[in-house]
Predict the 3D structure of the following.
Amino acid sequence: MKISASLVTLRTGALTLFLSTALTGCGLLGDGSGGDAGGRLAAGAKGRSFTVAAAGDVLIHPELTAQAEQDGKAAGKGGMDFGPIMASVKPVISKADLAICHMEPVLGKPEGPFLSFPDFLVPPQIATTLKDIGYDTCSTASNHALDHGEGGVKDTLDTLDKAGLKHTGSARDEKEGTTPLIMDVKGVKVAQISFAGGFNGRQVPADKPWLVNKTSLDAISAAEKAARAAGAEVVILSIHWGKEHQPAPNSLQLSLAKKISERTGINLVIGHHAHVVQPMEKVGDIWVAYGLGNQVARHEVPSGLSEEGVIGWFEFAEKNGKWDVQARYVPTFVELPPDLEVADPAVKVPDTGQVKDHRLIDLTTALKNGSAVTPERRARYELAYERTQGTLLNRGGGKDGLEPLTSR
């Protein structure tokens, strides 16, 4: 599918990508396939066109690791299988011409050990699943990028390479850190750049500023210019910013989004880190998705909001030498089994009809399934859908055409 396997390798010289000004860090389609929207774009656009799907944080907690082990055993694979957890979003992700994920934690070795908060080290098997469901590239600049130092950065990028996923935001050496990621998407050279505001108190080594990209307007602007110099026609910024568990973008996000719109030529901003959905709005001429929530996660204390996420769907069309972007969305929900706090195995736990497995749900498709969804689950899905939609639209994105990718 989709993007060319080649990466533009034009050298651009060392970038001044790591200035000190930073944002807040963190502690923590008809049928649902996207086909209708993609078809409308192809039919209506003059010149070149392509679609982008981008989703929220991939953050593997111990409960998800246990689920992958259970699913792998059930399938007779003898190892972890994250496929069943994420299968429902494959029709959307795989339909996009370019699909972008956000890899927040460090990827470890296949047999472990695995660690959770505060210093994540997660199963590398998740990378294979991300590739299998259709992702092409991942941003890797996050507050957890330096959880295990330079070795953790190397292991993460080696794993993504092995899975066939492109990546940007962190690097193993200076050449990699100063070479823009540019992908051929339906004949269009599309660059992705990735930045994070902080690293949970850790510092980027002074002698290795390329190890992970730290946010500043100057650094973002320099990265965009380098990508343009290397041939990029479109530049997409993935940015780890904002305040955790807050559905409203904070003043730093709003201020930086305005400056990016006014002072750079970036075409799209996709945000991460809050672990809850934040609005999308058009700032000047560019769409900003302040926070896409979680793609898949299972926080120690789920908040209800932390299970809700969104896939942003962006339709690029070339018009009069410029790129017009239309924004769409697909609400998602991570289904969590109830905690069973029963220490005595002799105590029989009643079957309450609750879900028994961790599963990522495409809410649009689930709500179309009628009798296949119990009334109790439908009520929860409706709440998640309506709350996600309300949050996405609450900065006026509807007036600029923001709408669901497909109706439910």
About this structure: The chain has eleven helices and 17 strands.
